[in-house]
Amino acid sequence: MRIVVFLLLFMCFMTTGCTKDEILITSEQTKTIGNPTAEEVLTMDPNANVFLYKDTIYIAGIPWVNELKLTKDIQVTEITHQSNNGKAFINGTANKLAIGTKIFRVKERNDILIAETDRGDIRFYQLVEG
Hints:
six-stranded antiparallel β-sheet; two-stranded parallel sheet; 8 strands; about 25% helix
């Protein structure tokens, strides 16, 4: 009787462990490792306020970033392109900031930049993986 139970359990493990679905890998299952792209961010949130600087996406509207005491430092770049198409983003492209908007670093942190606009300063947080 024990041998029959053992054989049944063994067959269950073998048949469930070697199914075609588990070993089939499609391009939809592969994930890109790296920082988020403008296309990915805008696909998840079409209303996000983002720009690309040094091949990294910066996003506005992060509550804890807006609460920090920060000191604006030197200008590091300015917006040179505007697009809502994430695939079209190159460095200097924003989806909501106007062309010519000046971007400043802050003294206290390296992962936050400030955009100087007519309606006031907007803080942007660097989106990086890890």
